[in-house]
Structure formats: structure tokens, C-alpha cells
Give the backbone structure.
Amino acid sequence: MFRYQVVENAVIALVESGALGVGEKVPSLRTMATRMGVSLSTVSQAYLGLEAKGIIESRPRSGFFLRESFRRIPLPSRAEMSLEAVPVSRNQLILMVLETVGSREQLPYGVICPSDELLPGSELAKIMIRICRERPAELLRYETVEGSLDLRRQLAFRSLDAGFESTPGDYLITSGCLEALYISLRVLTRPGDTVLVQSPTYYCFLQLLESLGLRAVEVPSCPGRGIDPDDVARALDRFAVSACIFSPNYNNPDGSLTPEEAKKRIVELLAARSIPLVEDDIASDLHFGPRRPGTFKQYDREGTVILCSSFSKTAAPGYRVGWMTPGRYREKALEVKATTSVSVASPGQMVLAEFLASGRYDRHLKRLRAAVALQMRTLRAHVGEYFPAGTRATDPDGGAVLWLELPPAVDGVAYFHRAREAGIGVAPGAIFTTRDDYANCVRLSAGGVWDERMKDGLRCLGEIAFAMATQ
Amino acid sequence: MFRYQVVENAVIALVESGALGVGEKVPSLRTMATRMGVSLSTVSQAYLGLEAKGIIESRPRSGFFLRESFRRIPLPSRAEMSLEAVPVSRNQLILMVLETVGSREQLPYGVICPSDELLPGSELAKIMIRICRERPAELLRYETVEGSLDLRRQLAFRSLDAGFESTPGDYLITSGCLEALYISLRVLTRPGDTVLVQSPTYYCFLQLLESLGLRAVEVPSCPGRGIDPDDVARALDRFAVSACIFSPNYNNPDGSLTPEEAKKRIVELLAARSIPLVEDDIASDLHFGPRRPGTFKQYDREGTVILCSSFSKTAAPGYRVGWMTPGRYREKALEVKATTSVSVASPGQMVLAEFLASGRYDRHLKRLRAAVALQMRTLRAHVGEYFPAGTRATDPDGGAVLWLELPPAVDGVAYFHRAREAGIGVAPGAIFTTRDDYANCVRLSAGGVWDERMKDGLRCLGEIAFAMATQ
């Protein structure tokens, strides 16, 4: 992260903590430079950036001030919910939302993969070109069902950062994270079985459950605390659960982080009942703080935690390269993979294996994390400016999704359609649950690079919310 | 195809038709040149090639002779079979066979994709390099669930060659042909349903049926005539069939071609009972004759024929790019795709779309067809030389698989293991059926380029057969 970005973040943090009230004066260049141990020019670069982002304004001969329009945004309330097992059916709406995936027209507040500018397009292209020159034939060869050994080796190296040790043989390369989850459920469940998920949870999980004829029990996911082990215990006591799908780190959509202690307890609870846990780890590398959060997998002693992830949200969505650690279900998982898509496309695996081996992936992740963190805060600050009073927003420590709770009068699905007509993609709250919760919620993506277009789009989203809130 | 290859084929045809007996004199250079309207040098190039392949030998001052060792090989007998619905379970053996897929050690008589030399590696690499330079960001973008519009447009253009008209909207791009078949079965069947297949049929189809908990009814596939509509009618009368999976053109493994009239009748039979037909069209572009055979799809009036194919056997196995025409099941098919692998990797789709648009794919197919046809005949000729009496072999008009019926004493599975120890991959007959037929059969691939190594490998396979036949 560049020095000036650190300063920008510091100022936005002041706003969010309430330490800097609307209309108040931002610390002077000199004060800030001393406080943060950076040069005056760095601070002025940061302040000019914040001004360009419309967060602060300079007044002649009196310095910078937080713009009047800014307010603090409270956290969304935790859904009060009773536990019930519901056959999943949300598909029509979800398919409509999915249409925005890959659509170039919509302003990308709906899709959660980083925009082109944040992806290592030219770096990966360089590697691809070299492979095209040196090993053209290999690009056309079938990869094995398990996937590229070079790539699995790199994943094994990296697993230490995620808190557990592994070998290349522990991995199965998949077509993105969703195929990993799909294979997990094919291996772990039969139609009619019950699966535990978070609420809210990623709508693709619900769609997957529906297409496999499974029932969902939702345990609350709290923006502040993630999953509460007591909720899990309660659900396990009441239902015959075949498997769980949890996203402990920066859950999509509420961005919640489940604390390490809770992770440990949840794994123990499930192990005691030998119930497998499918861990969605896809957002963990997008931590805004210095350290990557831990995983369920690191507490797994039985080989019953299947960690699933991919490069789709950090490096190459279009490559469709993900992975899973099938643990004790490996043979069955290989069988499902061999009978659906056989193996993952070779070019993406070859390029990513070299990208990781070169160490450039880690350098890229550093830049990406800084950019997403800054965007998240900018986005959040502007939500405070553009959206009606009564709007609540999450304050995630990582990931690229911002979860908004709009005033009760706003129906999220109607809001989605209005935004769509305005050429802006958003994800309505209703698709993140099998229940009737989150009707007035929407999920925004912080993956797009902040520019005038995105700013105007957000202003437009705010206006739609105003209009609907006061109807 | 080069002139000299035409001459080589003509000579091998003489052998196979029996017109040229073992030890007999091959037509003189001059006779052949006049008969075929080519130059003397072309004929001598062909004869030297045939001598190098060990098919003919030159005798000083008396010309070329068919080597003593050659015999004609009869066609395999058609399996006499009673119809029954069998829950599929062949998996362990199949998984062992699948290990040879992607394995570099085994001599590739088991895998049926063309060897590197026959694939357009450098042509596709050139296109990939240009795309990397011109549109690096696009390579990383998610493709839509349906798949690349450019590629679907090309497929629509080509469908006329396959005998039917289509639009880009009729296609869904999949991870190879197998995912297309998988999606078809997910859409058309429920666990416990019964599916009609050919016998013998591609083992991956059976593995797919097993993993989806389906039952198979096998109708005989005759090397000479393919599928007999009367057999289909009989099966439909006896069983509640949910769907059929047929490979009318160059069925893997028996290479059989179902005649146009039979195709038409089968489609009518099924339409009358509104039973969907999944058509595996993957081998059709590998026709040895001048014209591509027709499809079931061209007789489809109800939108109940799902044609499935891919580029894996003709251009780029490792790209994992296939397609299907889901017809009236389109929405459900999109839903299954969206909940398993979401979309197909972008790089392969982009490169293939340009390859097709440039017209180079067709030029490549011409070369590939000629090469595979020549290898098939060379392979067949040497089977006659190396394998014990009583061996039968198919004589396909297209495709890259040769189906051998070994002497009754030879057990195909034991044969597979002996060959594997010798470092040669073959596919044992038993995995191509749910029944106990084809125990003494093996499938050889004609996809490898013929060279000393392949020749020694085939000789070794013959020796193993000799040893096991006389045990």
C-alpha cells in the first residue's frame, strides 16, 4: 500500500469512528505529517485524493473540512430468526441476478470479482505468451483429473498461511470454488438431506442446494461476530444435518468474520457428531488488516473439513481455476469430478502455477488488498453521503462486499429492478436466504475501481433508495 | 491428404479387400501411376512409405510384394444379447483405466485424443499470443453461462455441415462433451431412471450413469450397421425409458456408423413416445470418406434431441471446450451449468472462436482426417501381422478407435493389466458394457502418430495376446 493510501485510510477511519464529525476540520497537513511520520507532500497527496473522492473539501486559507453531507452509518441489525428446515427455491430471481455476471453493460455493483484494472492481466499474459512459445503442445493436453501437480504443489506451500499443513496429494483442482462446493455436496449428501448454512449466505450456495434437492437450515450470521457456535449446536440438536457450508472469513454478503475461538468450537462440535464441514475460504486473502484470518481446516483432526477456494476473486475469474481439500472423501470426489467435467482447462492451471511460483501472486495480492480496502472505505463513506437516513451498512475487515440495510419501506427486489433499468447491477437481499428476511437489504460490490462513473452510479443508487423510502 | 498418402491408402485397401493376397506382387510403379493418375515418383514415395511401415517389401529386380506375415482380419461378431435393465457399477476398473488419461508414461493406445503432432498446437498458440497482446484483460473475465457468443456463432455456421440449421442461441458451451452429457442427464433424469445406451458404449457414459444412480438398458451396436431401430423399438416396448444416449457416428469403441435411414427412424420412434435423445456427435468430423455423416439432430422436429460434442478429439483436449444444443430443455440446462461450473474458461473459447472464424480449423480437420485414416489402416494391417489367429478387428469409416476381439481364451482385463505393466495403455472390453460381454475384447486408439515406438508397442501387444491365447 502506498504511503498516501495509508493516510487516506487514516482519515476515513477518523470519519467512521466518529472522531471527525461532519463539517469539522481535518487535521492540518503538518499535524497529520507528524502524527503519521510521513512527508507533507504525502499528506497533501492524500488530502487531494480524498477531495477528489468527495469526502473532504478545502476552504480558502482554512484547510480541509469533512463535507457536510457525511454521516456515520450504523451496522445492520442481526436478524432475529427461528430455526427451520426449508426446501430451497429462489431460482428465477437468482438466474436474473446471474445474468449480470459476464454482462458488460451493467455498472458492476452486483458482480463481486475485481475489475480489470485490479487483476494482473498483463503479468498473466506475459506468462501465457512464454508458455505458448516454449510448450505450445502442453497447453492442448488433458490435465489429470486431480489437476496440475505444479499448481497443487504451490497450493500446499501456501496452506501454511491458512494455518494448516498439506501436501499436493491433498488437493483436487476444480472449475472455480463453486464446482468444489458442488462436488462436496454430491459426495456428502443425497436429495432430501439437510444442510446447515449461514444467514445471509451466498445465493449460489442456495441455488446449488436447490438444484441438488437439498433442504437448508439457516443459522444467523452476525455482521460483527460471524457464526455463533451456540446457534450451530442448537441447530444440530434439532435437525439431522448431513453437512454444513460456512464462510467464516468475510462472509458474502455480510462480510462477517467468525473469530478463531468460534471456528475451533464449531469444528469440535461437528467432529463430535462426525458431520462434515464445507469451508468456503474464497475471500480470506482479501484481509484489510496485516494478517490472514485462520481457517476451520486448521482445527480439522478427522479429515472432515473440506476447504474450498479459487483464484476467481483475486487473480483470474475467467480461468475457472479453484480447488478443494477433499480429505477422507477424496476417492468419491475424484469420481464425481471424472464424471462431470473430467479435468480443468490446462492453460489457466499452467499460467497460475508459474505466477504463484514466481512470488508475483503475493505481490499482486498486497496491491489488491490495499486497493479493495481503500475502495470499501470510499464506498462506505459515500453511502453515508448518498443514501437516506435509516440506512445501515456493514464495516468489513476484508472481502469485497458491502451489505446495506435500507429503510424498511424499501423492497430490495423492486430496488434491484429499478437499479437494473438504470444500468446498475446490485444483488437484492432476498436471494441470500431461503426465508423472508433481508427484504430491505442489498449487497454492493467493492470490486470496481472508484471513478466518476462508479460515483455517479452510487449517487443514482442513493436516489433510488430515497425515492423508494419516501413512497 | 497428400497424393502419396492416397496411393498408400489404395494399396492397403487392396490388402484389406483381399484383392492382394499375402506374398503376392504389388502393382508395379508404372501400373499404379497410370491407374491412379499420379507421377511415378509419387507412387515410389508411397511404396517406400509402405515398406517403412513393414506392410510391403521390395525384392531385388522384381518389385514390391505384400509381406508374408500379413493376413486379412475378419470383423468382430455381433453380441447376441437379451435386453435387461442393469444398475450400473463398473467404476473401480474404469477409474484405473482413466489413470492413463493425462499420464505421459503410457504408450497411448488407450487414450483416444490425437497425439501432440496431430493437434494444431502452434497455430492455436499464435492466436493465443495475439489475444494476450491485444486483449489481456478479456482473458481473465468471466464468460457468460451460455458461453462465448463468437464461438456459438461459429458453431451455428457449422451446423449446416451436420445437416441442421441453428442459431447462436441454440448452443450452450460446456467443459467438454462429457459435461454436456452430464448436464443432459441431470435435466432429463432422476436417480433410478432407465437410460438406453448402445452396447458396446463409451465407458465414461456408463460411469456417468452410475454416478447419477441411473439404470442402463443396452441395445446392440453392430460394427457393420450401428444401431438397429427394431432393437430400439423392442427396448422401448419393454422398459420405461427416460432418455437415450447414442453415438450414431463412429461409436466409441466399435466404430460403427448408424445409417441415415436408421437415424431418421430412431428419432421418429422416440418422438412418438416423446422420449429425449442425447446424441454424442464427437467423432463425426473424423470421417475417412469425403462427406461428414448426418446427425439425429437433423431429423429432430420436437427439440428433444440434444446434440453434444467438443473440440477435445479434434483440436484442443486441454481447453475443455464442448457444447450442447439443449433444445426445449434450455432453461433447466443453463440452471444446472450455472450451479456446477458456472461458465467455461475464457481463454480456450476465445482462441477457438478465432481459429474457426479464420477457416484454419477446417484446413486442420482435413489434415487430421487424412492422418487418422492412414494410421487406422496401418494399425489394422499390423494387427493382422502381430496378433494371433482368431483375432477380429473392426474396419471403421471414421473415428480414431479400433475394436479388437481377441481369441476367446484371452481375458481383456488381465490383458489390460499385462499391457499396463509393459507400459502400454489399452482399454479392456469389459468397461464398455454393464454386462459380461466383450470379456475378450480390447479397444486401441489410432490417435498416436505411427512410429517405431508405436510399432514396437503394437508388436508387444500382439505377443501378450499370443501368450494369453495359448495359456
